[in-house]
Prior knowledge:
Blueprint: H1 2-20, E1 26-33, H2 41-52, E2 61-66, E3 69-72, E4 79-82, E5 100-102, E6 106-113
Parallel strand pairs: 1-2
Antiparallel strand pairs: 1-6, 3-4, 3-5
Helix pairs in contact: 1-2
Amino acid sequence: xxxxxxxxxxxxxxxxxxxxxxxxxxxxxHVKLGPxxxxxxxxxxxxxxxxxxxxxxxxxQLVIEETPIVIHCPKCRLDATVPSVYExxxxxxxxxxxxxxxxxxLEVTALEIDA
Length: 115
């Protein structure tokens, strides 16, 4: 389960930032997660609960924002959301494309701290 190593990395990021700010309590860690990231949301949530135990961010919550798959059509230059990786065609003109603009995200975007 590689989600545990990812969750441990997220905990490290949160602890480091908390330490830089004088040890302020971290209330929540916000993460963007795309369907093409290779990470299962439920597994990451469960792994985070395990990874935070005994750490300085033990009371924090993981808030996951799921991002859609967005493709760019080379024919009509449209950026469009598609329902799945199996449907990488422009909804306007039907052109197939492998130009994925969004959907691979796995990034910590914000920390909520208790000031």
